[in-house]
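#struct-help
A.M.: can someone run this one for me? Single chain, 340 residues.
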Amino acid sequence: MPTFFSSSPGFTARRLAPLAAALALAACSKNDIAIAPPAVPDAVVFTVPGLYPEGLQYDATGGRFLVGSQTAGALGAVADDGTYSVFADDASLVSTIGLYFDAPRNRVLVAVSDPGYNKQRTTAATLRKLARLAIFNRDNGQLVRTVDLGGLRPNYATHFANDAAVDGQGNIYVTDSFAPLIYKIDAQGTATVFLEDARLAAPAGAFGLNGIVYHPDGYLLVAKSDAGALYKVPLSNPAGFTVVNTTGLNLSAIDGLRLQDNNTLQAVTNAQAKVYRLTSADGWATATLGGTFATPPQYPTSIALRPGADGYVLYSNLNALQANAQPPVSQFTIARLRFQ
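D.P.: on it. Structure tokens below:
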């Protein structure tokens, strides 16, 4: 058997001392070097003719954006170099609207509706009547389940599932733009009507309830497009919802929302082609302007938060789709927010 250490006095200490010093120096040097965070792009441009995505999320683990499509229904993955690939697809995806990446539960939530733009999947039974939630596995894009929502209130002539949020217990909340409803899906997949109130209704053909986020203090913040309003809805008493006082702000056509932190909310206004940064010092009883980001007139819809940036906004070009522009738009942009 070979001898690794001599038994002579002082040998071990003499041999190990330089090694210990070298290790200490290496550790010190490593700690002294500032490691720059990964660079984030100013914009990601991807080309898929006629895709018309509305929803946007960022998957930090996968290093990709996720986008939906009003015309194809499929969920797509977009890399920073603009490469687009299909992440998930299913016949139940007529038009994919709002997306939510629920990282703690490894799932992607998709609000599904039928505005009539997916010619392969629209039907008379679903046209402007569909409100559905689809849940996918984040890792492999497999469909976990779909949940019918519009069927909870068949008395309304039209439905449109628009956006989703998740509370701390994993309950999902979904807005309906054509009916004055917010749905709730619990951890077991059971759907109920969380809030129904005539004050949340919109005129026929107009979009009412839209973007939604969960605030960790126990309430939802919900956008209403036609009114340019923001609502605070307590989870413990949804019927006691209140209007956030935004006096002096024009939030008409408010669409997607993202909570940057507990006191900062990002809000897209699609027809205005502008993203607002709102701040509150009183638990969202009131909100004031903290900055704006102007976009091209390409109908911005959704915001995704991403490490290393204030966030990104999707230019959906849905105005071109609604106008039946020919040829269809082929390039779409995910732009980094830089508030002024």
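A.M.: thanks! The mean pLDDT is 91.
D.P.: also worth noting: Residues 109 and 300 are 20 Å apart (CA to CA).
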